[in-house]
Amino acid sequence: MNFSDAERAAMEQALQLARRGVRGANPLVGAVILDPSGDVLATGFHRGAGTAHAEADALASAAAAGIDVDGATMVVTLEPCNHTGRTGPCSQAILRSGIARVVYAAADTNEDAAGGAAALTAGGVEAGGGLLADESRKLNSRWAAAMAGRRPFVTVKTAQTLDGRTAAADGTSQWITSPEARADAQDLRRRVDAVLAGTGTIQADNPRLTARNPDGSTAEKQPLRAVMGHTPVPAEAAVRGTDGRFVQIRTHDPAVVLAELYAHGVRHVMVEGGGTVAGAFLRAGLADELVAYTAPALLGAGTAAFAGLGIASMARIQRWRWDPAGGGSAVPVGPDLRLHLEPIPFEEPE
Ligand SMILES: NC(=O)C1=CN([C@@H]2O[C@H](COP(=O)(O)OP(=O)(O)OC[C@H]3O[C@@H](n4cnc5c(N)ncnc54)[C@H](OP(=O)(O)O)[C@@H]3O)[C@@H](O)[C@H]2O)C=CC1
Ligand SMILES: Nc1c(N[C@@H]2O[C@H](COP(=O)(O)O)[C@@H](O)[C@H]2O)[nH]c(=O)[nH]c1=O
């Protein structure tokens, strides 16, 4: 399929729109609807698992503005899905809309959702992919790695000082970050399928690990509360709760934890520490994004945010890059800073 200059520009815009979504169980996707002369009619993006897909979002914003999309072109960063997951199939929504042509970047590698282009073609819509496909794949490379590994997408979250401490020398850590930053972190807990901590954190903090609303009430959707490590979690520990959504996984291996969580239906897990567990995920290359709430404060000693990385010299330095997706890579939250990063793949020296 040949692509017009307007379609290429629309795909660049769609990639930018995609970055407004949040990372997690689903890939970042953006969509732009063009009229036959190449003018933008409507745009959309996916806001995260359980919300409208980018195509449906763009169609909804066209409908809300009273714009007729009959005969229009949909430009989207990922092949439209063909399955009913948490929302309905985009291929069918596009067929119903009267859109005449669909241009997408990357093919959908998720076996369950693939087949959208074929369904569109069968329904009489001209559909073709490959426009800026590498950019789209790069945007979602960690998500694709999680899918290929049949494991959840992993967000590691820390609340740390400027000198990278997540607890003081005596083990206390409440609170390093401000109420604003802690409320912001609850957004993540409300979004993920599971929250994970090590037995050390359970012993030190007796945390609840529940998702709360801004007013402090318990959120409707609760993540599974998971603990890794061998020390038995006491019967009276708050993390056990009363809703049965608790699991202890008696291992030190992050891959084993992820396999077990995946079997429980978890597609996005937030690792909330402590430093031993967070470090184990980073060392294993199993952290897909890092959200580091950083307080302008110093502790001088205490628990390191990431222990046991096994880095002895600059040759093994673990580098990350800023990730602007989901609101920005460095965002002030109250007096603190929320840093959002993604790992740079490590290349062995030749
Ligand atoms: N500011 C923040 O963001 C946070 C701060 N904290 C603070 O951090 C401190 C706890 O951190 P930390 O002591 O590192 O505890 P962790 O919560 O990381 O738990 C560590 C324990 O988990 C088990 N474990 C699980 N996986 C591994 C592994 N891969 N390697 C080794 N052990 C493993 C071990 O216990 P076992 O023998 O049972 O197997 C280990 O002692 C507390 O002071 C807490 O207040 C905690 C969370 C977040
Ligand atoms: N100390 C610290 C955090 N600590 C994390 O929050 C857990 C407590 O959760 P809960 O009992 O559900 O409120 C605690 O065990 C640890 O995982 N989080 C932050 O955003 N900022 C902070 O300064």
From TrEMBL:
Gene, per the UniProt record: ribD
Which UniProt keywords are given for this protein, alphabetically ordered? Answer: Hydrolase, Membrane, Metal-binding, Multifunctional enzyme, NADP, Oxidoreductase, Riboflavin biosynthesis, Transmembrane, Transmembrane helix, Zinc
What does the record note about the cofactor?
Binds 1 zinc ion.
Pathway(s) per entry = Cofactor biosynthesis; riboflavin biosynthesis; 5-amino-6-(D-ribitylamino)uracil from GTP: step 3/4; Cofactor biosynthesis; riboflavin biosynthesis; 5-amino-6-(D-ribitylamino)uracil from GTP: step 2/4
Instruction: List the transmembrane segments.
Output: 290-312
- Reactions it catalyzes: 5-amino-6-(5-phospho-D-ribitylamino)uracil + NADP(+) = 5-amino-6-(5-phospho-D-ribosylamino)uracil + NADPH + H(+); 2,5-diamino-6-hydroxy-4-(5-phosphoribosylamino)-pyrimidine + H2O + H(+) = 5-amino-6-(5-phospho-D-ribosylamino)uracil + NH4(+)
**Its function?**
Converts 2,5-diamino-6-(ribosylamino)-4(3h)-pyrimidinone 5'-phosphate into 5-amino-6-(ribosylamino)-2,4(1h,3h)-pyrimidinedione 5'-phosphate.
**Residues annotated as the enzyme's active site:** 55 (proton donor)
Q: Where does substrate bind?
A: 173, 189, 209, 212, 272
User: Could you tell me the EC number(s) of this protein?
Assistant: 3.5.4.26, 1.1.1.193
* Highest rank taxon of the organism: Bacteria
* Pfam families attached to this UniProt entry: dCMP_cyt_deam_1, RibD_C
Q: What is this protein called?
A: Riboflavin biosynthesis protein RibD
